[in-house]
Structure formats: C-alpha cells, structure tokens
Amino acid sequence: MGITLRTARRGTLAGAVALAAAVGTLALTDRVPADAPHPAAYPKSDGRAHNAPKIQDSFDSLGPEVRSARLPTGRTAHYIDDGPRDGTPVLFVGGTGTSARAAHMTDFFRTTRENLNLRLISVERNGFGDTAFDQKLGKADFAKDVLGVLDKLGLRTVRVIAISGGGPYAAELASLAPERIDQLHLAAALPPFGAEPAYCALPDDVLATSLKESITDPRKWWAFADDSPVKSIPGFADTAYEEGARTYNQRGQQADPAPQVHEQKLYCRRPGPDLSRLKAPVYLYGGTKDTTVPPATLKTWQEHLPGKPVVRTYADTGHDVQYRHWDQILADLAGYGNRTVVCHKGRSEMPPARDAAKLVSNGRATVGSCAWQGK
C-alpha cells in the first residue's frame, strides 16, 4: 500500500504488538464501505446512534409455530397457540383441506386481533399437514383432540370460530362438551344437517379422481372470483397457496386425496349432532353471493341451534365472508357484538350498532375497516 511500518526491532514483544495493531487498523479501515455514515453522526459518550436508522429489538412474526402434544388417547395432536398468554382463548376451526396453520391467513388483521387481546388456537385435523391419516377416525375424534389440547394448555373454556367445512367439527365439539364453549361463531359454515351434498353418492375412487387435480395445485383449490375482496389483501393469494401446499404435502403425502375424500364423506353423515345442551351465544355469518355454502344454510343452522343466534348477512360477499368481515368477527369474539366496525371519515371505528347503521345508511361510513377502502 506504500506505507512504511515503523516498529520496534523484529522479534520483540512490543514490535509484534505494534505490528498487529497497525495491520488490524489497516484491515478494518480497508473494509469500511465508502457510503458509511461519518463518525460525527454518532455520539461520543453514551453509545446511542441518534442519526442512524433504528434497529428493532425483537423479531417480527412469520406466522404461528405448529406445535405437537401427545394426548391421553395416544394420538399426537398438532396445533398452534398464537397471541398473548393472558388473552381470551379462541379456537379457530379452519375449512376443509386446511392445516393447523390456516389461521395465518387471517393475519392481515393481526394488529386488531392483538389489540382485542385474543389468543388464537387451532388444532389440525386427521390426515392434513403434520397430522397422520387414520381411516377409522371421525368428527368426534377431532373434538376429543381439541379437548386434549385445551387441557394441555390449561384452558377450561374457549370461544369458537368455525369456517366453511369446519362447521360440522364445531358442531361435534358443541355437542360433546357444550360447557367448554363460551361463544360459537360460524362463518360460511357447512351445517351437518339438511340434505346431503350431491357428491355423497359418488364412490370414494370417483370422488378422489375429481379432487386430485385441485388439491395437487393449491392455486385451483384456493381460487377466488376476480371480484373477491380478498384480492385487495397484499400477499393473501400466495399465503393461501402455501397453506394448500402444506396441507397436502407437509409429510410427503404428494397430494394424496385419501384424507380429503374421508373428510368430505364425513360431511355426508346424517343426522348431525344434538346441540340442545349448548348455552353459549351463537353468531352466524353469511354472504348472499355464496354458492358453496348458500345463504339458506343459515336457516338450517337456526333450526338446529337452541336459542336465537345473531345473524349477520352481507351482500358484498360470497364464500369469502369470513375474510372480508374478519374485522367484525374479531370484534364479536372479543365481546363487542353490540358494536359494528365501520370506516368513518377515513378512520376505522367501532360505534354502537344503531349509530353505525345510521352512518352507513346516510352514506357517511362504510362497513368494515378502512383497510378495505385502501385508506
């Protein structure tokens, strides 16, 4: 480098130390990027960098961790437990063909969930994701798995939100252990009552063939209409595709349709469970454009539920009501069922339901968070 190092005589300790210090300084200086902040940008005493970008002190979440628990039945349950330990526990029962991590698809309102102090728990079903497939298991076995996980977590009661194909499983839990449910929320949820789905008459191999293509390609399994509101959620589609891949390939299943066929045939079993002992408040959510679980199914649920559930129907959604109105579902789960989430004057608010209805009818507010308005 054209620099002469003047040190003590070779071989002396002082010379070696001086040489090492000089070389170390040169090496360090040589590696400093040309665009690095000038040392004057940093303080000289307290060690804090006033003008430098802030570096976070904790990790951002990449979604919930899937855990495992050995249950008294001998089965291993896979589940998530996400949110504050002292939060209100909420059991998330995902739709058909979902893993324990499907709840991650609602993290677009994670901040709201945390602000409402909700703790989200989800237990994986037979044959999906990490959970091994057993042809002998039914919906009641899932309910027992849930109770086993809740016991492991030390939770006596829980609020339940079931989506789509999670409906029959939530009903099974409500029948088996109604005293463990504080609230029951059913969003676009398939009822285990009424007429059987048309596919129930198909042999298993024919149903497997009809399902194979869509479960092999999660983009088809999780396809939403072009006008679906979920299209405005950044990263939603890719998160859904990742969830589909996890559900059918996590253990190297290579999109084996057997667990999906088994689950869908469980939906065919009639009659559904007796819900007469359920004392918890019930909320029903439906989209008037839903062709997968049509609006008429809300009446089917009402016919088999005790008491009078709260029914929320939305003309702006189909089989995506659980995502478009997840903000309201969270509010209901947190105990704010008498309030309505709206966007008013560019801010998301939760006024009493009557006041919210007036604001919306007068065109001064829109239903749901302002996030849906791009604000």
What does this structure look like?
With 375 residues, the chain is an alpha/beta fold. The chain contains twelve helices and eleven strands. The strands form two sheets. The chain has an eight-stranded mixed sheet, sandwiched between helices. The radius of gyration is 28 Å and the shape is globular. The protein starts with 12 loop residues before the first helix and ends in an 8-residue tail after the last strand. Residues 1-30 have low confidence and may be disordered.
Strand content: 5-15%
H and E order: HEEEHEHEHEHHHHEHEHHEEHE
The largest beta-sheet arranges its strands as: 1-2-4-3-5-6-7-8
Q: What kind of sheet is the major sheet?
A: 8 strands, mixed
Shape from CA axes? globular
The poorly predicted ranges are 1-30
Distance between the termini: 57 Å
- Helix/strand/pairing category: alpha/beta
What share of the residues lie within helices? Answer: 25-40%
Overall average residue pLDDT = 90
Distinct helical segment count: 12
If you compute it from the alpha carbons, what radius of gyration comes out, rounded to the nearest whole angstrom?
Answer: 28 Å
Q: Got a strand count? A: 11
Quick gist of this model?
The protein is 32% helix and 15% strand. The chain is an alpha/beta fold and 375 residues long.
